[in-house]
Amino acid sequence: MRESRILLAATLLVIFLVPSSFAAQRLSNNERALFDAANSERAQRSLPALQWDESLAAAARKHANRMAFYNVLEHQLSGEPDLRERLTEAGARFSMIAENIAVAPNSQTIHSGWMHSPGHRKNILNPDLTAVGIAAVRGSGGLFAVQDFSLPVTVLSIEQQERKVISLMTAAGMRRVTASEDARITCEMDRGISASITRSVQAMRFEASDLSKLPETVEKNLRGQAFQKAEVGACRASNAPGFAHYRVAILLF
User: Fold this and answer.
1) What is the DSSP string of 24-68?
2) 58-79, pLDDT tens digit by residue?
3) Which DSSP string corresponds to 79-118?
């Protein structure tokens, strides 16, 4: 063990929530201490509390057990999937993920070490990361701890995606907005529009992991010109496993 008695590592890559009362039943004392300490740090800075995510916790436990068994501190051990794949296999869906790992004699030393390390501190205090799963496993080399963070994303069906975009466009002032097969076909094309369209039309496509707002380019286009109606179509996006990603086409007439 090094003089500091703690080894740390952090990573950041640019979901199913369990009530905290249920999660508390499953946490060890060390895991609860790390969870409470992280949220105490966020509360002191008026940041929203991290929500416990059992999918993240399951992935964290698996990795912590593996590190403790081999007595090795690494984000990815030999023969092990990377962080994205581990979280995906555990059932998490997300638009951002990060991980802190450490080994030390106890949870207090681990948390202190994380907060005095810029990378780990940034993950704990990142306002864009809203969920966490934590594991702490005792091994021959000390207490191995894993914090897996995410920005969880609800997976939406094609119809749900279209309804959200239609709602956003209506709120932006577009009165006649519907979903259409022509827009869905256009969405699947890299360029051009559906062959069945004979009217003058402008097509826009965008990809996003968050459908809570329209992209700025779309909003600007809607403000800049007078359109009579719009049609919306979503399609499957080719995204990495685990990362929620949406592709939408908008036809403006």
Assistant:
1) HHH--HHHHHHHHHHHHHHHHTTPPPPEEBHHHHHHHHHHHHHHH
2) 999 999 999 999 999 999 999 9
3) T---HHHHHHHTT--EEEEEEEEEEESSHHHHHHHHHTSH
Place of tokens 């205090």: 125
Instruction: Of 181, 152, 156, 155, give the one whose Cα is nearest residue 167.
Output: 156
- Give the residue, 253 or 12, on which the prediction is more confident: 253
Q: DSSP code of 17?
A: B
Q: Which among 118, 204, 124, 108 is positioned nearest to 165, based on CA atoms?
A: 204
Average pLDDT of the chain to the nearest whole number: 89
CA distance 161 to 251: 15
Residue 2 — very low, low, confident or very high, per pLDDT cuts 50/70/90? very low
Structure tokens at 83: 């962080």
Across the beta sheet with 142-152, what order do the strands follow?
7-13, 94-104, 142-152, 131-139, 51-52
Token pair 């009217």 in the structure block, residue: 199
Count of all residues that appear for the chain in the document: 253
Token representation of residue 105: 């004699």
3-state secondary structure 207-221: EECCCCCCCHHHHHH
pLDDT at position 131 over 70: yes
Instruction: Provide mean pLDDT across the span 44-56.
Output: 97
Q: Quick check: helix, strand or coil at residue 228? A: coil
| Nearest-5° Cα angle at 212, 165 to 180 | 10
